[in-house]
Design a protein that fits this description.
- Pfam families: TetR_C_13 (PF16925), TetR_N (PF00440).
- One of its GO terms (molecular function) is DNA binding.
- The protein has a single domain, classed as Orthogonal Bundle (Tetracycline Repressor, domain 2), CATH 1.10.357.
- 76% of the residues lie in helices and 0% in strands.
- It contains nine helices and no strands.
- The protein is elongated and about 60 Å long.
């Protein structure tokens, strides 16, 4: 359409997502979003909505992108349970090690800011965390763990996974992150061995 600037929505959403991820919701201004996306204020509002709406879109984008990768990693849980959980953690470690991405996790960062966020954003962060526990619970059930063990390990592994993001942002080394994972894998291995 003549007179209307065209832009690639996916590129803009990725740029906004990285800006929110790097600085957090509260510390990202509309000017920051303009710089990150290359759009002016009116284009952001007319095409992407207000700051809350844009943040929700970015959070959904992030949760879907990494959720798909977690699902793929866990897809072999019934055949190779320990390998599947190790690959689940590898998704997080690869994201953390990627020099083109901010440290940490957008979902974790959002969850930690819940007290100062809008109810809609808070609810979406809680939902994303719940989906991660649910995908883990499904994979752990496929490993034939007892229901109570599958529930407990789903909560534990999700918490460990979120802590990797926090620890990396605080400067933990890859070696330290691997040690955290190894302890969890040892506990899961023992539970699987006890089951058989």
């Amino acid at each position: 359409m003549a007179g209307k600037k065209q832009f690639d929505v996916d590129t803009v959403l990725d740029a906004a997502m990285v800006q929110f991820w790097r600085a957090g919701y509260a510390d990202t201004s509309l000017d920051d979003l303009c710089r990150a996306t290359g759009l002016n204020r009116s284009s952001i509002y007319s095409s992407l909505g207000d700051k809350d709406s844009l943040y929700l879109r970015c959070l959904d984008r992030y949760a879907t992108r990494y959720g798909d990768r977690y699902d793929q990693a866990l897809s072999s849980a019934s055949e190779e349970p320990l390998r599947a959980i190790r690959e689940f953690f590898e998704v997080t470690l690869k994201r953390i090690a990627d020099p083109d991405l901010p440290d940490g996790c957008l979902v974790t960062q959002t969850a930690m800011a819940i007290p100062v966020l809008s109810p809609d954003i808070a609810a979406r962060a809680i939902e994303a965390l719940g989906l991660q526990r649910a995908r883990l619970r499904t994979a752990l059930s496929a490993m034939k763990l007892a229901d109570s063990d599958a529930d407990d390990f789903a909560v534990h592994i999700a918490a460990v996974n979120q802590s990797l993001a926090v620890m990396s942002r605080a400067g933990a080394s890859q070696e330290q992150l691997h040690t955290i994972i190894d302890i969890t894998m040892s506990a899961l291995s023992q539970a699987l061995y006890a089951r058989s």
